[in-house]
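Q: Is it fine to ask for two folds in a single conversation?
A: Yes, each is treated on its own. Send the first.
Q: Here.
A: Result:
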Amino acid sequence: MAKKKFNPEDVIGKPYARGLLPYGGGVTRGKISFAVSEEEHLEKMKRLRLIRP
């Protein structure tokens, strides 16, 4: 069975539970206010690796 790809729009507004934000995001008053997609996460890590000596 193929693993379902994470879609940030699916979790925004839902109550936060551990594991709902695999790539990061933000929680306000117990609800997810924003989520980071896998593509955004990989791009950020790529930029961070460039500045690391």
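Q: Second one now.
A: Result:
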Amino acid sequence: MSFDWLSDLQPLFDAQKSWHDGTYGKSVSLHLLSASDTPFTIACGADLLAEHVRRFRFTLQVIQRLGHVTDHQGRSMFSESFLNHLQRIRLRAHVSAAPEGTLLLPGEPMLTIVAPELQYRLLQSAIQLLIWDSSTIATAAALEQWQSGRFSEEDTPHPPRLPFNPQGWGARAWYIGGGNTASELSPAAKAWAGFVQVENQDEQPLVQIRRLFKGEIPLGDVWLTAHMDAEASVSHTHISFQNELTRQSIDIQMSRFQNLLQPVLIKGHPAFNSPSLDYLRQRTWKQLEAFHQCGLENYPRGWFIHS
């Protein structure tokens, strides 16, 4: 059984408010930050968000259903002009996220979104259910292994067949996070933390995390604005940044790097090709093993200085 996305109408009420107050077309830039009360977060759910966008449309049947939503006096709760707009809407949101199974450090964004105000409001509940909830459940599974001293597994269990609904998403996240059995009940997700909005676009928000490696061992995470991303050379084998943990400049020699934030939606169109669930689970285990070897507690991360 699939999930009824119209079971929660609050995002639509919020979107309608922006339609009527004239802010619907205003571009907003937001981050969904990983939790700060755990030593790491396992990113999860990006492929689910792309799949949701592939599936959901404001069809005539959906619009008619919304038109029949009334208040206690029998009046329609959605205006005709707003419903007409939904019928014509073309998603223009840009969303980037860390690939599923990626280990993120506290406070690093698991998702960034740039979108018109109305479209961000329409996507908010999907991002909460698919990205935030999945990531917190996957993290709980991985933390269970981390705290028990397990950083790898010899055999990957066969992935479960799961419905596209909250129960299936939770079991999927538990599996990706390294949960012991697919049949285990996954824990409840943490309370929704919401987005951090970039109020001043001149402040140049973080748009990319460049993870530096020597072989397979991670050396540090470099945070980049769009300007920094353009300036940071991709050919150099060293990079300098200010370590947020110590506030000191650090210069790292590397053999390669990986950009952690990758497109999920480009002008509203899904950009992900979904890997298999067992591959995503193996990615989580490789991340746990690598960060165990490099030392998670003192792992450096901070803003780019120069290449």
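Q: Anything structural to flag on that second result?
A: Two points. The longest helix spans residues 117-148. The helical segments are 10-21, 46-55, 60-67, 80-88, 117-148, 166-176, 226-231, 277-294.
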